[in-house]
Fold:
Amino acid sequence: MSAPKTFSIKSFGCQMNVYDGERMAELLGAEGMAPAEPGADADVVVLNTCHIREKAAEKAYSEVGRLRREDGSRPVIALAGCVAQAEGAEAKRRSKSIDLVVGPQAYHRLPQLLRDVEGGARPVDTDLPPLDKFAALPRRRRAGVSAFLSVQEGCDKFCTYCVVPYTRGAEVSRPIADLLDEAAQLVDGGTREITLLGQNVNAWEDGQETLATLIRRLAMLDGLERIRYTTSHPINMADDLIAAHAEVPELMPYLHLPVQAGSNRILKAMNRHHTAEEYLATIARVRAANPEIAISGDFIVGFPGETEEDFAATLRIVGQVGYASAFTFKYSARPGTPAATMDDQVPERVKDERLQRLQALVMEQSRAFNASKVGATTRILIDRNGRRDGQMIGKSPWLQSVFVDTDAGIGDMVDVRLTAALPNSIAGELVTKVTQQAA
Ligand code: SAH
Ligand code: SF4
Ligand code: F3S
Structure:
């Protein structure tokens, strides 16, 4: 086999999985490989998988099958991400086409693993050495206007439904010096907004430093206009982080704070470590600090033992919070997690029906949230072209996509008046162009 020249990386999972995909692309780029043109065959395909729900893993395996070309040949296929971690060598048995398996903490060794494949091996690397990979990765290249920065890896919370503690290993915070350095590299490359990532990002710490102090230091970086963070756990919503929402203008008024369910009995069975009342009290403190803040969340319907009464409590808490947006999931039993073997698994049709009711409520709330902003003048960060000539799309502070006719370009910030709420976005009218991105 000749040495691989082009690659493509497909990410299926959460933002941390997307971040890993970007770092793998940078790594292969530094090895002299080039990303394949869109639509063209790549010599190496990395499937950066997600294991969180049943369908996500199935998707990855069916993707492997689809990589076979018309002439019967196929690219070198690397299975990466959380399915790779969970399945390990089993993945090679499930699909003969998988050439190598590499976990989310081991992908800095991807170049060597590809060389092993060239030598005829089918290597599996699912070691979980905390933070080793970061030192071995190349410097950040020119990233997007809005970039992700993983500040924390793994999870120690062990919610009873969740695979993440098993696929990502123990919760580890990256040192502050590394993070400030990586953020500076991103800003040098043109990034204007950074989203700090971690499974429990608000539990990030380094000595006396907390997520709030990290945010305050990042806010001082020249050229970094906006800071976001995700995902937070309700029990780690510290006072200093809430205060930062009142005091740091660069910190966007948006908080993703999953509650999963409204019933205390279910929250306990999920091992979430808080009650519905404690969650509501946290939301009230956040809103007292910044009344403008948009709240989003995650919900699971049909957790084992969930009764109609429990589900009514979920609808109730959604009604009490008033979400700007929310992700809703049907409970999916994951092998090896405690909930998978609990009694009273909820039938699929009951889950379907509850999901529909919850989604209808959540959609009504996001429509109401978007409508409440119509008439306001706000600043957007332009991150892509619109469908029409002269139309651009940017993000509001509340993470809404805003369409506007302007000659401003990607990376510019413009002030717009929000004129109409559409189902998944908002239309805006240009007020003034604020800053021009240096070429
Ligand atoms: N660490 C984050 C998110 C992890 S996964 C947190 O704690 O909020 C993202 C979301 O997927 C979770 O918030 C949860 O709503 C959902 N999820 C996780 N495991 C699931 C499962 N087994 N079935 C259905 N949804 C699940
Ligand atoms: Fe999964 Fe819970 Fe950890 Fe989130 S906090 S990653 S839901 S175990
Ligand atoms: Fe999926 Fe792994 Fe993220 S299981 S949600 S890609 S941490």
